[in-house]
Specification:
547 residues; six-stranded parallel beta sheet; five-stranded mixed beta sheet
């Protein structure tokens, strides 16, 4: 079974990252199965400080949950050499219950494809007596196909001229139809063997396990005639000889349909749906062969199981969420849930932080909280509640953070101050990086908007940012695909926010939501520090009311 991904929202904050790590640990402890903490965006400076503080690696980055070809159950069929005989290729297909083989070069790159149909077609069509020579068949393949041994000749040599004939007549008749370079299949008659050598045959196949005399060996060697001895009878040898032909003679080399391992499954499925081909080769980014997959593999693909933390809206979820199987949601925001195919475990509580809910689940399941996990959970609560200053903070959040701080061995005020200072270092960031560090999209009626938030302990730094960010928002809006853009410049210590905005109607909605006169692109909001409760609730209410 695939590991379950535990992931927060795009542009993750400290709660999103720490909750994913902590909940994945809890699920692994309870089930013994694999749960992978993940992130849908870059880690911001505040969160990176927390991870460094407690010695935790940042979660794996997941750009999209849209399944790619390497996510399906493909067959790791070993490739074969183009020199391999049809006999050995067919035996490999039979033993492994497959009908298609990739033909590779020494660098593991695809040279061609050979199918059971290609082999059958070669046998059913009239190939003629010169098929072996046309294919440049090696004597190694010939000996192997006839279960024989090479008595005279070079094992690395190839049969490249002449036809294959069966010497069933007397030597005086044989002289009329044996030509130079021919391969002659015959029995133990000395006269026939001698006649073939004298007629400059390229090879004689002595059947029935007959011993090849020293005289014949000597004469053959002097004449440059290869001698193969086989225990099979003449009929069996003549029937099996074409199995020595190398696969390169029948394999397909032109118009091969291949796919890269990182191709989207949806794109591949669309491409192959009308093709009457059973198996397709999968290549890596460098063009090296990886394995074979069928259309059934595309249909039977296991969907990636996902647990969402700190969000439940599809607009905030990682790309490709519709292709995944959401099995749980742990959140503290308003409910605008992603669609699921089946009933799921959904836990949503009116608390200041998702980490508070996860801490409660540790206690409910009697799982001891390690100091490192306690430090992550406490940091998430302090971040989301702005060290208990946010109106979304509850008594439960505050009590939980204090208990976690004791387990983690940290001082709340010192740790929160260090966190906020780390997150406030914005001088070396571009306006685009600043805006998208903590950024969420919302929809109200027929309007789409994005609200970003920057928190700082320095009012002078926020004042400087305002001069940069208003022109940036005006420049960004036309290409953003959104109707309005908002940016909260929040002073954590002063518990105030200056709200910047651009977009048609943005000013009117702000004035209606907060009942105060607003400037052209900004308004000062004393006491407002929470995006979720203090900003979005009245703002969305005003938009939905059409004020």
């Amino acid at each position: 079974m695939k590991p379950v991904i535990v992931i927060g929202h795009k542009n993750p904050d400290t709660d999103s990252i720490c909750s994913a790590i902590s909940y994945a640990y809890l699920k692994r402890t309870l089930t013994g199965e694999e749960y992978i903490p993940s992130r849908a965006g870059h880690v911001n400076p505040e969160t990176q400080y927390v991870l460094d503080k407690f010695g935790v690696e940042k979660p794996q980055y997941v750009a999209s949950l849209e399944p790619r070809l390497h996510d399906i159950q493909y067959r790791q069929v070993s490739g074969i050499s183009s020199h391999l005989s049809l006999k050995r290729a067919w035996e490999y297909m039979r033993d492994n219950n497959i009908t298609t083989l990739p033909v590779l070069n020494h660098h593991n790159q695809l040279k061609g494809i050979v199918t059971l149909g290609d082999i059958a077609r070669f046998y059913m069509e009239d190939q003629g007596a010169d098929a072996l020579a046309d294919a440049g068949t090696s004597y190694r393949n010939i000996v192997d196909s006839l279960n024989g041994e090479l008595v005279v000749g070079d094992p690395d040599g190839h049969f490249t001229q002449g036809k294959v004939i069966v010497a069933a007549a007397n030597p005086d008749v044989m002289e009329d139809y044996i030509s130079e370079h021919d391969m002659v299949i015959l029995g133990n008659r000395y006269e026939s063997q001698l006649c073939s050598i004298e007629m400059k045959a390229g090879c004689i196949v002595v059947c029935l396990g007959s011993k090849v005399s020293r005289t014949i060996q000597k004469l053959a060697g002097e004449a440059g005639c290869t001698v193969v001895a086989s225990p099979l009878d003449t009929y069996a040898c003549s029937k099996l000889i074409n199995q020595a032909v190398p696969v390169r003679h029948v394999m397909k080399t032109k118009g091969l349909i291949t796919f890269r391992h990182d191709d989207l499954v949806s794109d591949v499925r669309s491409s192959v749906s009308k093709l009457r081909i059973r198996y397709f080769p999968m290549l890596d980014s460098a063009g090296n062969y990886m394995g074979m997959f069928s259309q059934r593999n595309l249909l039977d693909m296991e969907r990636q199981k996902v647990i969402l933390v700190d969000h439940n809206e599809k607009d905030q979820a990682v790309d490709g969420i519709r292709s995944a199987d959401v099995i749980e949601v742990i959140d503290h925001h308003r409910i605008d849930a992603v669609e699921t195919a089946n009933p799921i475990y959904f836990r949503n509580m009116p608390l200041g932080c998702t980490a508070t809910i996860i801490t409660m689940m540790y206690r409910e399941n009697n799982v001891e909280i390690p100091p490192v996990i306690a430090g992550l959970l406490c940091s998430a609560i302090l971040s989301d509640t702005l060290m208990f200053r946010s109106p979304t903070c509850t008594v439960i959040d505050q009590q939980t953070a204090q208990e976690l701080a004791k387990i983690a061995g940290i001082d709340i005020v010192e740790h929160a101050t260090a966190m906020f200072n780390a997150g406030s270092k914005l001088g070396d960031k571009t306006p685009d990086e600043i805006f998208h560090t903590d950024y969420k999209r919302f929809t109200a009626e027929d309007k789409t908007l994005a609200v970003a938030q920057v928190t700082s302990v320095s009012q002078s730094e926020l004042d400087r940012l305002k001069e940069e960010m208003v022109p940036y928002l005006k420049q960004l809006l036309p290409t953003s695909g959104l109707d309005m853009l908002f940016l909260m410049l929040t002073n954590i210590i002063g518990e105030t926010t200056e709200l910047l905005y651009v977009g048609q109607g943005a000013k009117d909605y702000v004035e209606a939501a907060f009942h105060r006169e607003a400037g052209e692109n900004s308004v000062f909001l004393p006491g407002v520090v929470s995006r979720k409760k203090q900003l979005m609730t009245p703002l969305l209410g005003a938009m939905e009311a059409g004020e």
